[in-house]
Write a structure and sequence with these properties.
Elements (H helix, E strand, L loop, with lengths): L1 H8 L5 E2 L5 E6 L2 E6 L6 H4 L3 E7 L10 E8 L7 E5 L5 E6 L8 E7 L4 E2 L8 E6 L2 E2 L5 E6 L10 E7 L4 E3 L4 E7 L3 E8 L9 E6 L2 E4 L4 E7 L1
Antiparallel strand pairs: 1-18, 2-3, 3-11, 4-5, 4-10, 5-13, 6-7, 7-8, 9-10, 12-13, 12-19, 14-15, 15-16, 16-17, 18-19
Length: 225
């Protein structure tokens, strides 16, 4: 969530023409991600995903509204992090010394499946699960990240983040914000307190486009639903 806030506040200077070729196959709001330029392999159709559902700081039982969702691909490196689904349903998290995950593992632990984790590394209450498909809400800001420099994802999608729109989200115990978006821009309005009430104290916006995440040659395509 803090990464999203940073992206929203600091508008990237590396905007390039969108060329995101991944198509969405929907079935009751559940999707699989496949390349529109070639047929999908059986391995991509049988992929597993690790989903992290984040809750507001005040929701220490993970019982209220989900305010941030991140999908990672099982066993795939992303910025030096790898999540792996075990056969018993538990999740292994490995942090590598380098961003490419070719160096030594410097940190590793087991995450319980479908348990509210109030000590999550994400800094807010989080439930981790291994799933077979991705669920897309009817309205949200989607951020598809692929391991290339032009948002031409094909088979190299590595991360998908879903941020709900028109929802009060706690930045921390002191501030909150509401995210909105349209076909050209996304924006964030910040408030003092955790309820998004009173006069706003800050506002920032960015373009719905392709962003290059230097220095690691990842690119992120923003989509407003």
């Amino acid at each position: 969530m803090k990464i999203i806030l940073l992206i929203l506040i600091i508008i990237s200077v590396y905007n390039i023409t969108p060329n995101f070729s991944t198509s969405i196959i929907s079935n009751n709001n559940k999707i699989s991600l496949t390349s529109s330029s070639s047929s999908s392999s059986s391995s991509s159709l049988n992929r597993k995903y690790i989903v992290q559902k984040g809750y507001n700081f005040v929701d220490d039982k993970c019982s209220e509204e989900v305010v941030n969702t991140i999908y990672s691909i099982d066993g795939l490196c992303y910025f030096g992090n790898v999540y792996t689904c075990r056969e018993d349903g538990k999740i292994i998290y490995d942090m590598y010394e380098g961003y490419s995950c070719n160096d030594s593992i410097v940190f590793s632990f087991v995450i319980e499946n479908d348990v509210c984790d109030t000590n999550s590394s994400e800094s807010y209450p989080t439930v981790y699960s291994c799933v077979d498909s991705i669920e897309i809400p009817t309205s949200a800001l989607l951020i598809y990240t692929s391991q290339d420099n032009d948002c031409g994802s094909k088979e190299d999608l590595v991360n998908l983040e879903i941020v709900p729109t028109n929802t009060c989200i706690n930045e921390d115990q002191t501030y909150s914000f509401i995210q909105t978006c349209n076909s050209t821009n996304y924006s964030i309005t910040k408030y003092f307190g955790t309820s998004c009430k009173g006069g706003p104290i800050g506002h920032a916006q960015g373009e719905i486009t392709c962003h290059l995440d230097n220095p690691n040659q990842y690119s992120s395509q923003y989509v407003c639903l």
